[in-house]
Amino acid sequence: MREKVLDFWFDFASTYSYPAVQRIGPLASKARVKVRFRPFLLGPIFQAQGWETSPFNLYEAKGRNMWRDLERLCGDLELPFRRPTTFPQQSVLAARVALIGLRLNEKWGKNFCLALFRAEFGEDKRIDDAATIGDILTQLKVDPAPVLEAARSEALRVGLRTETEEAQRLGIYGAPTFVTPDGELFWGNDRLERALVWAKRGK
Questions:
Q1: Which residues sit opposite 7 in a β-bridge?
Q2: φ, ψ (nearest 5 deg) of residue 179
Q3: Whether 66 contacts 56, CB under 8 Å
Q4: Separation of alpha carbons 159 and 125, rounded Å
Q5: Which domain holds residue 138?
Q6: What's the whole-number mean pLDDT along residues 55-75?
Q7: 203 pLDDT band (50/70/90 cuts)?
Q8: I want to staple 176 with a disulfide (CB 3.0 to 4.6 A). Which of 20, 104, 151, 202 is the partner?
């Protein structure tokens, strides 16, 4: 029998990935579906569509509504929310650190992802700042120095690029995106529950 797994693709700069990353653990546990965190970069995918920045910046009305919607959603979920001063932020270093954690110790890797999203969208901290990442790792009782050194290595540069290319191959065009073992793609925080049902039933 095929394992009930849901791949959770996200970019740390993605607004709606913030509530999704907070919700997915309890919902997946209840559904008895394993979740694989898959950090990647939206930038190359946007560039392939001719966008130099987030569509929420390109289309003012869309962006304005998104921020208000995210504020309401975080309020409903009792999540802290502060609109980041800079948007979108560079998420390369954070994604590389997440890849290290998820490969070495899935628990701290996932906890790092949750904490980083809260720092960015709950506290308006810079996720491209090694100090922010180091503080989070320290709070998780992980020595930040070797992790940050490894994150700047050629191996991690290639690793993150490979993950992003895999996202493109799958047809992912935004985040969060959920992909089931049979290749069904569900885009958006509001499709999380449906994605879990599909992953569990296989249809």
A1: 36, 179
A2: -125, 125
A3: yes
A4: 25
A5: 5-201
A6: 93
A7: low
A8: 20
pTM higher than the cut 0.90: yes
Encode pLDDT of 72-87 as tens digits. Answer: 999 999 999 999 999 9
- How many domains is the chain built from? 1
Q: What spatial distance separates the first Cα and last Cα of the chain, rounded to whole Å? A: 14
State the Cα–Cα distance between residues 119 and 127, nearest whole angstrom: 8
- Number of neighbouring beta carbons within 10 Å of residue 136: 23
- 123 band by pLDDT with thresholds 50, 70 and 90: very high
Q: What is the DSSP string of the chain?
A: ----EEEEEE-TT-TTHHHHHHHHHHHHHHHT-EEEEEE--SHHHHHHTT-SS-HHHHSHHHHHHHHHHHHHHHHHHT------SSSSPP-HHHHHHHHHHHHH-HHHHHHHHHHHHHHHHHH---TT-HHHHHHHHHHTT--HHHHHHHHTSHHHHHHHHHHHHHHHHHT--SSSEEE-TT--EEESGGGHHHHHHHHHHT-
- Is 1 a residue whose pLDDT tops 60? no
Q: Which of 123, 115, 63 is nearest to 88 (CA)?
A: 63
Query: If we measure between CA atoms, which residue out of 159, 114, 105 comes closest to residue 136?
Result: 114
Here the CATH number for the domain that contains residue 35 is 3.40.30.10
Q: Alpha-carbon distance 63 to 59, whole Å? A: 6
Condensed to tens digits (0 to 9), the pLDDT of residues 167-183 reads: 999 999 999 999 999 99
